Amino acid sequence: MAGISEQLRAIYRLLAGHFGPQHWWPGETPFEVMVGAILIQNTNWNNVEKAIANLRDVDLLSLERLSALDSGLLAEYIRPAGYHNLKAARLHNLCSRVLEVSQGDLDHFLGQPLEELRLQLLGVKGIGPETADAILLYAARYPVFVVDTYTHRILSRHQLIDEECGYHQLQELFTDHLEADLHLFGEYHALLVQTGKHYCRKSRPDCSHCPLDGF
DNA sequence: CACCAGGCAAGTA
DNA sequence: TACTTGCATGGT
Q: Does the CB of A85 sit below 7 A from strand B?
């Protein structure tokens, strides 16, 4: 029985070998990453891209301009991402927090110490653990492991965790047994999502011929 | 047609 | 505390 650390590394190697580099959110601004982190909630990236393209077309991908925009109008631009009324409010909630805490200086906001920033994010209505951690990792560039439903489903189906393992516990499994590395965590999360999408759907409980088959 | 996607909050008991 | 439900569009 190998240690957890070796198992997690072996899984990473299998997935990275199968899917290759993921490079999520490359070359985008931290603000775009934050917007994307909210828009992606419970939908797919295809829909989010359309919503972001709409915002880009009218040059609304900035904190000041998005904050000043009417909620109803914002909702129309992001409609393709689903839950448009809800997400319009959530985007405004996040912008307001940055305005309060950092007077609209996003670099200052994201430059806060990790724990401080995490609490700020979790205090925004509409930002839960996963969205907060995605922003911490991909926008603020802290080595934080992002856990999502696929992470839970995959590890649980391969008997690495209990079915009733919670978010924080699952996150600790990774952070306690891997070195805190920005690139590793970013790729690992992305790879788990790819694996989940292709091989570990809810309606397919078998998990056969996935890159982790037999693990 | 049914299913579900990179969640979260509020309500219920 | 432990479920359940609303939120909504678009792809397979």
A: no
